[in-house]
Amino acid sequence: MQLDLNLLTTLDALLVEGSVRGAAERLHLSSPAVSRSLGRIRKLTGDDILVRTGRTMTPTPYAMAVREQVSGLVRQAGAVLAPSRDLDLATLERTFTLQCHDALTTALAAPLLAAIAERAPGVRVRFLTETAVDTDDLRHGRVDLEIGATAPELPEIRTETVGHDRLVVVLRADHPYAGSLGLEAYAAQPHLLVSRRGRLSDPVDEQLEAHGRHRRVLAAVGSTATALHIVGNSDAVVTVPEVMCRPLITAFGLGVAPLPAPLRLPPVPIVANWHQRYDTDTGHAWLRDRTREVLSAVLGGLQPSSSASPTMMPSGPRT
What is the CATH number of the domain that holds 31? Predict the structure, then answer.
């Protein structure tokens, strides 16, 4: 049975107004159009709905019995087709899933959770680490917001570059080159790479090659914390985003210190990705706003070099 839900709207107007003319004015339709709809309603229900009593129309017992139900159905349909854009943070009960690498999580989690708890105590956040392979987690709703250095090449994924971080060289605090590290010495050190896929090269090697230098990559590890721990206990060095890694170094007391890179390296973008289904979701938009505010505050006044190429992303979290 195929139902025209517009008939519910017409029936509701007829029962409220008690006449075809009144219902037509309420619905901004012509009286003949409402009369035709009333005829269809009578045929579907097997009831007259409204009957003439002198100069007025009187609802039948059936019409009186379903009046409140019809009105409720029309209100529910209106709520479904025109969802409220009001967001009551005090009563919001929701769990959001964010995915980012460990340095970003360490820098982001504490201030973001504090901002959420202050205004939306019913909101919980699930932080997931990056996986070794690309997934469809954003597309299938398993991840609400992904933060990294690149954007998935999918037309339904929305992307926003929140800011940029600067690459620095991190080495042991009592490393022989802890005070100063030139290009020759930098290239000569054993290097670690942070790579979720285990890659043993990145665009830093291209920059070194342009200067006639090569480096020896000792190992690739899946997390920044692991790389910093190794660096703190060896002569190896690692090139990482400065601001994002600063809380991790402080939190774990890893005995390492950053130095400016001895060659010009492009800045690392901080990119937020989400599925287009959440574009008009007020709760998700609120989460994006809070995440943007926290990341902007963490990055502070750090500005990328104007001469750096925006297309190169060495040591980014999606390698």
Answer: 1.10.10.10
Token pair for 280: 């008009």
- 193 assigned to some structural domain: yes
Q: Do the domain assignments include residue 28?
A: yes
Query: In terms of residue numbers, what domain contains 37?
Result: 6-81
Encode 257-305 in three state secondary structure.
EEEECCCCCCCEEEEEEEEHHHCCCHHHHHHHHHHHHHHHHHHCCCCCC
| Shared domain check, 280 and 138 | yes
Q: Which amino acid is at 99?
A: Q
**Measuring CA to CA, which residue among 227, 319, 226, 304 is closest to residue 268?**
304
In a domain? residue 218: yes
Confirm if 239 and 171 have CB atoms less than 8 A apart. no
The label of the residue with tokens 């025109």 reads: 82
CB 103 within 8 A of CB 41: no
Number of domains in the chain: 3
Euclidean distance between CA atoms 314 and 31, whole angstroms: 70
Report CA dihedral (197, 260, 147, 291) to the nearest 10 degrees: 160
pLDDT in tens, 260-277: 999 999 999 999 999 999
* Amino acid (one-letter) located at 121: P
Q: In DSSP terms, which residues pair with 238 in a beta bridge?
A: 170, 192
CATH (domain of 224): 3.40.190.10
Instruction: Specify whether 140 is located in the same domain as 106.
Output: yes
Give, in order, the Cα–Cα distances in Å from 180 to each of 24, 61, 137, 191.
84, 93, 43, 17
The answer to whether residues 148 and 287 belong to one domain is yes
Q: Is the pTM of this model over 0.70?
A: yes
How many residues does the structure list for the chain?
A: 319
Query: Contact at 8 Å (CB) between 178 and 203?
Result: no
Q: How far apart are CA 84 and CA 63, in angstroms?
A: 30
| Residue range 46-102, pLDDT digits in tens | 999 999 888 888 999 999 999 999 999 988 887 777 666 788 999 999 999 999 999
